Amino acid sequence: MIDPQMFQLVCFYAFAAVTVVAALGVVTLRNTVHAVLALVLTFFSTACIWLLAEAEFLAIALIVVYVGAVMVLFLFVVMMLDINQEHLREGFIKFLPVGIIVALIMLGEMLGLIGVRAMHQQVMGANPATVAGMSNTEWLGQALYTQFLLPFEIAALILTVGVVAAVVLTLRHRTGVRHQKASQQVLVNARDRIRVVKMAAVAPAAPQPAPGKETTP
Amino acid sequence: MGEQILNQVVWPVIYILCIVLPLVIGVALYVWWERKVLGWMHVRMGPNKIGPFGLLQAFADVVKLLLKEVILPTNASKALYYMAPLIALVPALAAWAVVPFNDGLVLANVNAGVLYLLAMTSLGVYGIILAGWASNSRYALLGAMRSAAQVISYELAMGLCLVSVLVLAGSLNLTDIVHAQAGSKGIFGWFMWPLLPVFIIYFISGVAETNRAPFDVAEGESEIVAGFHVEYSGSAFALFFLAEYANMILVSFLASILFMGGWLSPFPASWGLLGHDGFLWLFAKVFLFAFMFLWFRASFPRYRYDQIMRLGWKVFIPITIAWVLVAGCMKYFGWVTVGTGG
């Protein structure tokens, strides 16, 4: 018999390995489009890991939002970049020490955080969705729209402000641009645009070719 | 061990084949039907030489495509060029896992079915973008750019349409959504009535999502030759073709399931055979929507790119956002009752 627990563990390590390899690919691949695709794969395998952890809403949201929308926009931009591949590696040695220092500081901070967590010995409670007998998505929806309604709405408001700010920052009022007004266009009648002129039919003045003399070219 | 493999590997594969094989044959027949309908609308005959009524034309085309050489353009990104058709096809087929064909007749009756569908349909665009980029062709890249912008814009409207349905049905499970439309009111219990604007927007967005006329700027054969698949030939092109038509049939299925009561009969149960719910009703509704795809193609000229964006962002998204609120009010104040109790 295949042990489900064992199978899940194997799957976890497989997805985790793919995630790590893909994440390495993001920073090492020379071609920017390939790097973006590696990032897509990273997100995808992360979503798989979350699915294993029975967080199906987060997993699918990650795919819908990041893989389906954000990364498409990334790809959209990256595909249009005209990058000289040779120049990309020029500063590699020069910036390597700075990069290593930043990486080390981040590693130290993360280890510290994990250490503090471990010292508190917080025992994870049972999965609240399972306790309530609901699916993960349903429980999350109930919690977000009842218990955490105000923070949720505030987050939505902040995001809306961000959207409006981005539009205002990039909006340039250019003069001399001719805009179409679709609302006016659809109200146009045929009468406004063309005039139908009644004319008497005129008989053709050209002489008829004599019958029998027609030749096919 | 043997029984476990049978239950967890063999049977699912057989079930999957039971969905995919009819789907592929359905795509072939749909292509035939499209050419016939377009022919009739243009006062032509359509395909009529191969087989009775030209029925075998689509299969002859498949054989022709499979026997042709797949050409790799110069300086194309080889791996991505060959992978792109597969990336387009896999989500188009994977989405069918959660589509219910009748009460209980579904491959995976998952609770987050609608979310899964959203995820799968949002992945299909990668095939188009990568095909456009990997081909190393100006026309293909232009087609990919257009497609990316268009699909992202209409995905938002489509997602918000689904939100209205979810609010009324109170479930993400497609079977439960159909059950929520059942009840004593018959045809008037279907979500297409309280959600009429959303229903129309959903189908139009579906047409735009599948890059079909009048939103086919990604292909735009009169402007950019054939858009993203201009460099593809033979079986690679056939895969794109298959993905596009499978997606069209999927959108038809979803529109029927989400808004027109799925397998529910439009007539009261007292009408005997006509009032009997069943997958034939679902297929009849799907046929209606699939026919509308072709009707649109024959009737409307192609939208201009900026007009597509205007329609998506300035018309559809505001209306759908407003209707989410309306649907919430319908549910909260009990203007619309759902389910068998209604």
Automatic annotation (TrEMBL), chain B:
GO terms for cellular component: plasma membrane. Keywords: Cell membrane, Membrane, NAD, Oxidoreductase, Quinone, Translocase, Transmembrane, Transmembrane helix, Ubiquinone. It comes from the Bacteria. It is an enzyme of class 7 (translocase). It is a multi-pass membrane protein. The chain crosses the membrane at residues 9-30, 79-101, 113-135, 156-175, 187-205, 237-259, 279-299, 311-333. It catalyses: a quinone + NADH + 5 H(+)(in) = a quinol + NAD(+) + 4 H(+)(out). Its EC number is 7.1.1.-. It is found in: Cell membrane; Membrane. GO terms for molecular function: NADH dehydrogenase activity; oxidoreductase activity, acting on NAD(P)H, quinone or similar compound as acceptor; quinone binding. It holds the Pfam family NADHdh. The keyword Transmembrane helix applies. The keyword Ribonucleoprotein does not apply. Its main location: membrane. One of its GO terms (biological process) is aerobic respiration. NDH-1 shuttles electrons from NADH, via FMN and iron-sulfur (Fe-S) centers, to quinones in the respiratory chain. The immediate electron acceptor for the enzyme in this species is believed to be ubiquinone. Couples the redox reaction to proton translocation (for every two electrons transferred, four hydrogen ions are translocated across the cytoplasmic membrane), and thus conserves the redox energy in a proton gradient. This subunit may bind ubiquinone. Belongs to the complex I subunit 1 family. NDH-1 is composed of 14 different subunits. Subunits NuoA, H, J, K, L, M, N constitute the membrane sector of the complex. This is NADH-quinone oxidoreductase subunit H.
